[in-house]
Amino acid sequence: MILITGATGHLGAAVIQQLLTKLPASQLAALVRDPAKAASLQAQGVHLRTGDYRDPVALEQAMQGVEKVLLVSGGADADGLQQHHNVVDAAKRAGVRCLAYTGRALREPEALVNDLMKRHFQTEDYIRASGLDYVLFRNILYMDTLPQFVGPRVLEAGIYLPAGEGRVSYALRRDMGEAIANVLATGDCANRIYTFTGAQTYSFHDVAAALTELSGREVRYTDVEPADFVAGLKARGLPELVAQLSLGFMTDIKHGQESAVTSELAEVLGRQPASLKEGLRELMGL
Ligand SMILES: NC(=O)c1ccc[n+]([C@@H]2O[C@H](COP(=O)([O-])OP(=O)(O)OC[C@H]3O[C@@H](n4cnc5c(N)ncnc54)[C@H](OP(=O)(O)O)[C@@H]3O)[C@@H](O)[C@H]2O)c1
């Protein structure tokens, strides 16, 4: 039995839907906080297990009879690292054979500006030290975040971000979900690290050019000053903390943290992942 956590989230759901094409539903379990959100999974025959990363007892119970766990990283909670530790510890206690984790593909973890990202590497260290067999999936920035980054008025107003000439090897979340499912469906759990990225990198000038081509309207990218970017977000009502977090993301992009390129996603998919233009067409309905 394979247990997928974060099963009512985007990535977890994509992984489960792909696993359902490869394995019988009776071999799949979904860890959810709110079973009401998982009615369709249950209807497809997936076992529902209820538990929160904050609840060690529920986690251990949820992992009974489970051979493999995919820990989908949680949100930005202050105790997020402890939540991940709880899942790893519960897996050990429950006798799970293989722990897989969805972290991030970032070039230089020790130089990250966005503290939230460091948590992924701390979680990986904890998994390695646990003695469990593991698979680590290091995912690049979801292309799916682009509509949020460029904003709803991008075709009229253009792109204003403090990301310099930073380049990102974006991949669609569903491509990474499919690749994760392909790996999980095999018996392989030999302490491997997969770095899943798109086939090439793109700057925000490239994003603007792709939007121009797809929409037929000229879109330009302007590299803005960090202070102006934060002030703009706050003027739109975002809290300081969220504004600083967004700046951290952009600064890491500017510094090239999201620019690794590997062929592993294509290899595990058995095809090329979606390009920027293909992804934007789908994500923005262009
Ligand atoms: N590579 C990237 O670009 C990128 C971008 C954003 C995020 N991420 C990371 O990748 C993860 C998956 O992405 P996503 O798009 O699927 O995010 P998502 O849609 O927000 O899903 C996150 C999932 O984690 C679950 N979760 C959060 N805290 C939990 C807790 N305390 N106990 C149990 N479950 C908990 C949520 O449960 P509920 O359904 O009950 O809310 C949800 O199912 C994110 O959580 C984040 O760590 C990566």
Features:
286 residues, alpha/beta, Rossmann fold, seven-stranded parallel β-sheet, two-stranded parallel ribbon, binds NADP nicotinamide-adenine-dinucleotide phosphate
Describe this structure in words.
The chain has 286 residues and is an alpha/beta fold. The chain has a domain at 2-139 and 173-197 and 261-270: NAD(P)-binding Rossmann-like Domain (Rossmann fold). It contains 13 helices and nine strands. The strands form two sheets. A seven-stranded parallel beta sheet has the order 3-2-1-4-5-6-8, with helices on both faces. α5 links the parallel β5 (98-104) and β6. α1 (10-19) crosses α8 (173-185). The longest helix has 16 residues, at 115-130. The protein is globular, with a radius of gyration of 19 Å. It starts with a strand and ends with a helix. The relative contact order is 0.14. The model has no long low-confidence stretch (mean pLDDT 97). The structure holds NADP nicotinamide-adenine-dinucleotide phosphate (NAP). NADP nicotinamide-adenine-dinucleotide phosphate binds at residues 5-6, 8-12, 33-34, 37, 52-54, 72-75, 83, 102, 104, 139, 141-142, 145, 173. NADP nicotinamide-adenine-dinucleotide phosphate binds next to α1 and β5.
In the CATH hierarchy, what is the class of the domain at 2-139 and 173-197 and 261-270? Answer: Alpha Beta
Q: How much helical structure, as a percent, in the residues?
A: 40-55%
Which segments are poorly predicted (pLDDT under 50) over 5 or more consecutive residues?
none
Number of helices in the DSSP assignment: 13
The CATH topology label of the domain at 2-139 and 173-197 and 261-270 is Rossmann fold
What's the total count of β strands?
9
**What general outline do the C-alpha atoms trace?**
globular
> How much is the radius of gyration in Å?
19 Å
**Bound ligands:** NADP nicotinamide-adenine-dinucleotide phosphate
Output the CATH homologous superfamily of the domain at 2-139 and 173-197 and 261-270. NAD(P)-binding Rossmann-like Domain
The largest pleated sheet is described as: 7 strands, parallel
